[in-house]
Specification:
Two copies of one chain form a homodimer. In chain A, 32% of the residues lie in helices and 20% in strands. The first copy, chain A, is an alpha+beta fold. In chain A, helix 5 packs antiparallel against helix 6. The structure holds a DNA duplex.
Chain lengths: 300, 300
DNA sequence: CATTATATACTCATATTGAGTATAATAAGG
DNA sequence: CCTTATTATACTCAATATGAGTATATAATG
């Protein structure tokens, strides 16, 4: 009897932002995240993950960080004996054209989480969700107050402010309330596209991590091309945060932190006055690995 | 051939602060962290870890959060076949008297990391360490500049400020420079007490996480008794951060965030004017699970 | 009652942040 | 060429947060 033996699985939340659209790399036409077993031939967890992503999506991966390790009892249905442990990673890339013409597996974040995009105001799907949440709150006479506070807090209801970082908490609340398909509910519309097993939860974990991290670390630049305008940079951050930002303050913060430097060239495809092109000052990574990037999350 | 099979191990960094001394629970007289295999009988990773801690240390565990998952090739020396995956957790507790008179495995953080405690000024061991680091910097003519910047940044040398969060980066630098025993060096003094396998690295990961987290989440209270004075709270934070804080500003921040409420009683054992006793306002966890606790890290 | 020690209140300069207004540089339409 | 639309960039200002003090309060001790 081998105590402690388990199946180790690697899962990737690979993210890019293309045309102001935050996307995640998927397999099976958008139903699952790239994944595969951790094998003896893999040098490390990271390199194992890189191999699976290369094999399943043929997309190069740059920045990679560990997200979370899951081991749910109901994850090993199909597998004989042992348990399955899933080690998930967040990867940041620039979207590349698919090699060989195969369809690339990019899908928009907000296809899975339509209630998370507040760039054009509060999304309409929230009305429906809030109504169903209210029923869920009301149905339990004992925990009603607790449920009320939790719903208010996570979804920014009744004077609470919307907090873009609470992606995972919102998903988990919807799951508990039986409002997403993975929870075995029969409802269909407005709850976002489901995914295989717990992959949507893992995506939520990655989104939450990234939304939180862009505020104190210069990771956005992993998603940017070599040269970019400040507005492009802002639009990328906005796409991730699902919010619009104050333009002038955004520039002020980026520039005063010396995160970027002018290339000298300008971009005039933007419509109005041509914008200066910038590049990321890689030197900053050494100068202050941890000193952090603050992003002005002053709403518009 | 079972592809993807691995040994799953759970490791705990269990921390308490007793008498202004941050401590970690150990086994084997301080040589290792509590750990054990993830077994079929365990419902979840967390509950498996709780069982191992209970069995090996008999200490109750409250707050628990996942730290990191490791899988190094050199971790499975003794075990036949497969790899070992270590899933580490950070636990926060209040130190309890050992049941049955067995010696409890509490050891001070700074026994393992003597260079991390700056509460009484820059620790003397740093002189030695810096000298050896300088040799390490100088010995490589090619990467000298890079090494210089890295040493300066992580240890706060040459005008760089000491950043208490960089516990792991400092340990890793010392490891790479061959200045800790785990790296196979022969030196003895001033490099802190080593631990079994990579347990000291895992402890560093936990310390770094906790030092970072107390700044934006009210987790310190997990380490406090039910009622406490503001100075006791401050001393606990200082013990963790390895720094002294500005007393008046500390109070201002704690109070204006409404993290605590007066119990009505006072504590007069402190020497001077009796201090009001406070308790943590648990309600705040619901009110703003994520709104955060800011700690004034203005040095004294 | 002076001394010592801690607790708590209040002050003040500076930095950061949120939210604007004003001006500059381009393209397109008439 | 002039107006309008559109984007870029500079500058202002009030509110708040932060770092670093000073001042006062309440106890114990000798």
């Amino acid at each position: 009897m081998t105590i402690g033996l388990a199946h180790a699985e690697l899962i990737a939340v690979l993210t890019a932002v293309t045309g102001n659209d935050p996307r995640v790399m998927t397999v099976r036409s958008g139903d699952a995240l790239p994944s595969g077993p951790f094998e003896l031939g893999h040098r490390t967890l990271q390199s194992g993950l890189r191999e699976w992503v290369r094999e399943q999506t043929a997309h190069p991966v740059g920045y990679l960080e560990q997200l979370y390790t899951f081991a749910d009892r109901d994850r090993n249905n199909e597998i004989l004996g042992g348990r399955t442990i899933s080690i998930s990673y967040l990867g940041l890339v620039r979207e590349q054209p698919a090699p060989g013409g195969g369809r690339p597996g990019w899908h928009g974040w907000y296809e899975y989480f339509p209630w998370e995009d507040h760039r054009h105001g509060r999304p309409a799907v929230l009305d429906d969700i809030v109504e169903r949440l209210n029923s869920w709150v009301a149905v339990d006479p004992v925990r009603r107050d607790q449920r009320r506070r939790r719903a208010d807090f996570t979804f920014g209801l009744n004077d609470a402010a919307w907090n873009e970082d609470l992606v995972l908490q919102r998903y988990e609340l919807l799951y508990e309330a039986g409002l997403v398909l993975e929870a075995g509910c029969t409802q269909q519309s407005n709850s976002g596209r489901p995914m295989f097993a717990d992959h949507r939860r893992i995506l939520a974990t990655g989104m939450a991590r990234l939304r939180a991290k862009i505020k104190y670390r210069p990771v956005v630049f992993e998603l940017m091309p070599e040269n970019f305008t400040l507005l492009q940079l802002q639009r990328t951050v906005e796409a991730l945060a699902g919010l619009t930002l104050h333009k002038q303050n955004f520039r002020r913060l980026i520039e005063q932190q010396e995160l970027v430097e002018e290339t000298g060239a300008t971009e005039s495809e933007t419509g109005g006055r041509p914008a200066k092109l910038f590049r990321f000052r890689r030197a900053i990574l050494e100068e202050r690995e941890l000193a952090g990037t603050k992003l002005p999350l002053s709403r518009n």
